[in-house]
Design a protein that fits this description.
single chain; alpha/beta; 6-stranded mixed sheet; 9 helices; 13 strands; globular; lipoprotein; membrane; Lipoprotein_NlpA
């Protein structure tokens, strides 16, 4: 059964909950390993593009497939996983594998991917220059402050010749792993959700695709440099608590999220700023 105390604990542990789960009166009755999969499938998602894609499925595909889908939006990258772990929601859709691996390791959660749906290329943006090589010596760049996205941001800058990272710097790379910094760039670590908002205060910012789109930025058009989609490990997927992969509602949603209809929706709506991964 859904437990209000568990929900309160998860929210307090994670910090402020942008959209309150306690108002969700129709949450799942199932827990990991349970055979009771009655009721709507409640999915936690970032507003853009994840919730938009889920809303398309809900309005256009779910009824015919016999799926009762409920979408809960969150602005942060923590509560969707903690809520999935404690059963407050049935699944989530917002993250990639390196982020999930790091989250599970640090927080002791048991979230697993079900199906990969899309890639949001990370981009470098600026209100002050129009080309990356126009950044002045000593320029300040805002980067996400969580381990995986900061490393991803630094690798984007390294791939475009702005910095050099030491050999072997992987998904936990930090500015301390920079071996060459010809422009003497400085880095301001901010919450991922704040990177787009920081553009007026810094010379440039590396912004996750969903936050860029939410801020009215068009990654395919506006990025100074954009992450390559080729062989990317950063595809975003539908995820559940381990043991719930066989939930028939989850299987239905996974099939719908990788349907031709959803692929066309992503391509038409996001024009290369979000790329289908199937």
């Amino acid at each position: 059964m859904r437990n209000t105390a568990k929900l309160t604990t998860a929210v307090l542990a994670a910090g402020a909950l942008t959209f309150g789960l306690t108002a969700c009166g129709s949450g799942s009755e199932s827990t990991a390993g349970s055979s009771d999969y009655s009721g709507p499938l409640v999915v936690a998602a970032s507003p853009t593009p994840h919730a938009e894609i889920l809303d398309f499925v809900k309005k256009n595909l779910a009824k015919k497939a016999g799926l009762d889908l409920e979408v809960k939006e969150f602005q942060d990258y923590i509560v969707p996983n903690t809520a999935t772990e404690d059963g407050s929601v049935d699944a989530n859709y917002f993250q990639n594998q390196p982020y999930l691996d790091d989250f599970n390791k640090k927080r002791g959660t048991h979230i697993v991917p079900v199906v990969t749906v899309h890639l949001e290329p990370l981009g470098l943006y600026s209100h002050k220059v129009k080309k990356a090589d126009a950044l002045k010596s000593g320029a300040t760049i805002a980067v996400p402050n969580d381990a995986v996205n900061e490393a991803r941001a630094l690798k984007l800058l390294a791939a475009n010749g702005l910095i050099t990272l030491k050999d072997g710097a992987g998904s936990e790379a930090t500015p301390q792993d920079i071996t060459k910094n010809p422009k003497n760039l400085k880095f301001k670590e901010v919450e991922a959700a704040q990177t787009a908002r920081s553009l007026d205060d810094v010379d440039a910012a590396v912004v996750n695709g969903n936050y860029a789109i939410s801020a009215g930025i068009k990654p395919a058009k506006d990025a100074l440099v954009l992450e390559s989609a080729k062989n990317s490990p950063y595809g975003n997927f539908l995820a559940v608590k381990k043991g719930n992969e066989q939930d028939p509602r989850v299987k239905k949603l996974a099939k719908l999220l990788t349907s031709p209809e959803v692929k066309k929706f992503i391509e038409d709506k996001y024009q290369g700023s979000v790329i289908p991964s199937f």
